[in-house]
Amino acid sequence: MELNSNTIFFKLKKHVATVDWKLLAFLILFLNVKIGVKIFAIVLIYLLEFDFKFGFKFKKSTLPLFYPIIIGIAVINRVISINNNQLNYNLVFFTGVIFWLLCILALHQIKLAVNRNEPGVIHRTVLVFFALNAAVSIFNLLSIIMEIHTVNPYLYQGQYQKYFIGTGDYIRGLTFDISTTNAVINAFGVIYFLVKKHAPMALLCMAVLLLTGSNAVDLMLMAILLLLFIFKTSKDQKSLIVVCILFWVVFILKVSPQNNEYVLKLYAKAFHHELPAKPVVSIPARPVTGSLDNSQDPEAQKRKIAQLYLDSLYRLTIKNKTSTITTTAAPVEDKHFIPGPDIDSKPFQHVDTSTSESLTLLNFISAHKANLPFSKNKDQQETLPGKLIAIAQTEHFLKTHPQKLLTGDGVGNFSSKTAFRATGLGFAGKYPPRFAYISGDFLTGHLDIYLNFFSRADGLHSLVNSPNSVYDQLLGEYGLIGLGAFLIYYLGYFLRDYKKLTYGIPLLMMMAGAFLLEYWFEQLSVVVLFELLLLVNMKEASSLKTEDNGNQ
């Protein structure tokens, strides 16, 4: 017995020793939604691993040159710009630059962790991170189930549809950030563990991804999985891909069919395609006059039971008359019919409530109508999703402002989380109101788009209607030079040994797609995880290259 205990302890100690707990703690803290926690993570990791040798070089740079180039463009724009609101804009400028510096500081520590560990240690650390994230996500789901006493909250329409199609918004995982963050993290996990041939973790990440209800991320991942299925997977991996796709199909057909309808509506809106109308069957309503009441006398209860029974027969008769399928009537059981909840009643219908955020947006629109061509027209129905309108706006801006084509409009002046934060409206993070700053280009552009959709009904509060996008940010605020730096010195940095990369290529494709959805660099979340996984794959590729040279 003592021998067995010692053996278990030895194995446990061995497993604990093969995880980089410092890296794991940094990931958990830095990916947390709170900016204060992120800064604490940076301070803590640099106290534990004091190293500021970033190694930026034009040839074989240790870290991507993209980051210092972007900061350089920001400084140039600040020097050449003429801004009347100097104090307020200076704060915006420094806020934007600080976000880029935090990206560098985080990436440097990730690089140090990869350098000091074997790939196997990083793999086990990453596995623990994804397992913890899945555990918290499942806890999020179980909390909802315990609250509503229903196994499938994605079909639950009670509480004014508090959950229902929006259930995924509450599956936030370990970061406590928006569900899109959790979705992208798990999409990374599916790809990583699929290529690593770790089926249980790949399926677990796939399940959590589906729980977040992020249609955009789901579709991106499905496209990547299909490419992997066709071009670069073994027989076992192909089987795993098929299972993942089946998970997705079952989810959209059985677990959350309304998400499927939502995607079809967005497709129809984006491509001006009319969906076939659903046939409507009108059933005459006959009110149920009440339910059983224990306070009634026995005779009154008998009369009520008889009345409810007749009402149930009436509804059954009407339903059979409207049905086009002839069925054999089942014998009526000799028991009383107690009607269930009426899903057409008010508690089961969605109600657009005026939250403090929406009221703030509406008040802002009212005060700035002259400069808001989209959002000032409340009754106007947009024919395109906000994301596409934002792309068109960026293109139009650069065409009409050729002097800003190369270096952009400057930090916080066109499209970024910093620009949204600096409005002082509170929906992109806290910012001192007395230092609020809103550029005219941002006000009449991407902010107007956001106000137009997110001040309206809840159904319009979607990723596809958000102007947030890294590509818009780079083009609008850093110009063609900024976008070029991203392509050459960021993506190019990770593609240096692209022929040797395994999961790195599909991960890069996933990240490139995700950059359409948010200002991920300023979010200080999924980009760090992406960079960690790519750096590990690059180290594995480098090891293979060294082995090949040695064999020669």
TrEMBL record:
The protein, known as: O-antigen polymerase
The UniProt record lists the keyword Iron: no
Keywords: Membrane, Transmembrane, Transmembrane helix
Organism whose genome encodes this protein: Mucilaginibacter paludis DSM 18603
Membrane-spanning parts: 23-50, 62-80, 92-114, 126-150, 170-195, 202-231, 237-255, 475-494
Superkingdom: Bacteria
